[in-house]
């Protein structure tokens, strides 16, 4: 089991009759934080989903570098951040998932997922793909909230300003009100809590988990001037529509997923082939890509000011909203629907 020694320690307070989740902000002796080992996570997965494959977007976190190695990789960019130095402007949200996914270039109508359709392909980059999972008992003891931001940054000290911004953005996203009417959401900090939320939202523990193809690079795909032709489409959820949960890996020193359900949905595996009319292919493009796409069928509660609707000449509720999954996303669906 991997152990990370923190330069600034934290103490988990013990309240009468049980364990208190609050962190005591005192610099004292060095303490340890336990990450979940690969063997523990594999054992848990097999106990819940025997003989079912672990998605690559979960496996990526099992091969995460150690905390010290991660710090060594970026040590030139780190300096200590204290609460009096972190201004309101510094803490602005840069990576709020809801804002990223609202970008019109990431959104598609469901009608494009037919063989022969041509699109400019945009798949967002995966963030924190190799952040390690915490052991559940440790994860549950840490209150992931902007109110505890100083305590949390102290846990991972020294922290760069850019890292602190990402951490604040992630915590703020977790606290943000629901973006869509009827949306269910939660931020999960362990594999067990991600599976637990998905089972609760989908009202079944018999689940299948999916990730997009390894064809999709971590940095995503951007083709503003080159077109891709849809070569093949396969429905992952063959019924008319079903309920699913999508969990997005967020910028954080440990594995933290923004999980939400905006249902009903249809899920497709889409194979795309780049049109090579240009003499020099654009960077961040591939000749052939296979990727998962999620289509939200009921869009009546979506933001009517999105440029997506203006581009289509439609209003919320008059068309589905689809987007491709990043390399770091995990999709959960009832086994009976796949």
UniProtKB/TrEMBL annotation:
Matching entries from PROSITE patterns are given as: BURP
The record ties this protein, via PANTHER family, to:
BURP DOMAIN PROTEIN USPL1-LIKE, BURP DOMAIN-CONTAINING PROTEIN 10
Q: Where is the signal peptide?
A: 1-17
Tell me what organism the protein belongs to: Urochloa decumbens
Please give the name of this protein. Answer: BURP domain-containing protein
Q: Where is the BURP domain?
A: 101-335
- Pfam families attached to this UniProt entry: BURP
| UniProt entry keywords in alphabetical sequence | Signal
